Amino acid sequence: METIASPSPTPAEAAKGPRCAASDIVLSLFTGQPSYGQSSSPKFDVYAVSTSAGACTLSYGPGSVQVVVTRAGRVVWDSAACKPPAAPEVRFTLGVPQVLSISWNRQASGPSGCEGSLSAGARGAFDAVALNDGQSSPVRVFTLSR
Asked: Which residues are registered as beta bridge partners of 102?
């Protein structure tokens, strides 16, 4: 059996506290509005709250939080496809939410996969979920209308 030594934390890392256990973070996802018109970009606010009694750190930002939108069980957009920059380490304290906003530009013509796979004029009910460090939020339903 091979043992891998972990590097000792630097003073700055030690001041932030230990790494948060995934089970100590509760994710919630909210949409900016319940329905979006054809020219509107859905906005998702992801709240992460620590239930740990002590302060801890976790990577939290666009590079670690993923929002996935599905329709009838098929993924139509995944924020990870936009290849966001690495997320910074954030200090969490009991009950204090960290909030991250992520928008889905349905009309984007940018990087392959980043704009999603909806046909123009698609409408109806969609599901969204946020994922971070093995945790997921409850599913949030929103609609796209004309």
From this structure: 44
**Tens-digit pLDDT profile for residues 77-125:** 899 888 888 899 999 999 999 999 999 887 665 545 576 777 767 889 9
Contacts of 116 (CB under 8 A, 6+ apart): 69, 76, 77, 104, 106, 108
Contact criterion met (CB below 8 Å) for 65 and 87: yes
Per domain, the residue ranges of the chain are: 16-144
Q: Which fold has domain 16-144?
A: Immunoglobulin-like (2.60.40)
The pLDDT score that the predictor gives to residue 94 is 95
Q: What is the pLDDT of residues 17-35, one digit of tens each?
A: 799 998 999 999 999 899 9
Residue 75: name the closest of 32, 126, 146, 119 by CA: 126
Please answer whether residues 115 and 83 qualify as being in contact, where contact means their C-beta atoms are separated by less than 8 angstroms. Answer: no
Structure tokens of 139?
């599913």
Mean pLDDT, range 49-71, rounded to an integer: 93
Cα separation of 122 and 32, whole Å?
19
What's the CA gap between 45 and 142, in Å, rounded? 13
